[in-house]
């Protein structure tokens, strides 16, 4: 086995057995070269693999911080509210509504929501806080013709619960896109990014059972806290 892999597996073992606890700094490259009696290039290969596998986050000018290896499983398929996810994962979370407003659809949102230019739509910006850390930013846009009224209390609780149990709407299916982007200024302001240079974005187009598109969402996640999962079955021709 190549030496950098031997070092990688030894570092993984130390992290997983909590010899170096979460949020602590990994020894410096210089300290690791002395610890393993090897070159800095070999140490860098091991550290790059640790970063790729989600064990550490490199922070420019500081070194490598050990991140939580116990990530939340976030199912990509299916449609669930954050409140339903919270209950399923048995986590304690808090939702903060940063913005709730009616706006006119611009060119981009006209296309995404399939409405007319300047039609009124709801804009809801919510931060999801888990274990005291702000790690999800949800930006929802909803067709006001379909969702005539929203309140801060509804948005803090569950919009889907309100739609299904008060407005008696039937949410049916969604089309999703997943991408990795650089954080925006808004992400940096509203989330605890702690030096993370990327953010995972799930864009969802959500439809009712009569095939009407009523919601476009951007759910922006800090990458170290989530494992994005799906279930797939091979179909023979």
Describe this structure in words.
It holds the Pfam family UTRA. It comes from Lentibacillus juripiscarius. This is Trehalose operon repressor. Keywords: DNA-binding, Transcription, Transcription regulation. Helix content is 29%, strand content 34%. It has 237 residues and is an alpha+beta fold. The protein folds into two domains: 64 residues, Arc Repressor Mutant, subunit A (Orthogonal Bundle); 158 residues, Chorismate lyase-like (Chorismate lyase, 3-Layer(aba) Sandwich). The strands form three sheets. A six-stranded antiparallel beta sheet has the order 4-5-6-9-8-7. A hairpin with a 4-residue loop joins strand 8 and strand 9. Helix 1 crosses helix 3 and helix 2 packs across helix 3. It is elongated, with a radius of gyration of 22 Å. The two termini are 41 Å apart. 21% of the residues are buried. The model has no long low-confidence stretch (mean pLDDT 89).
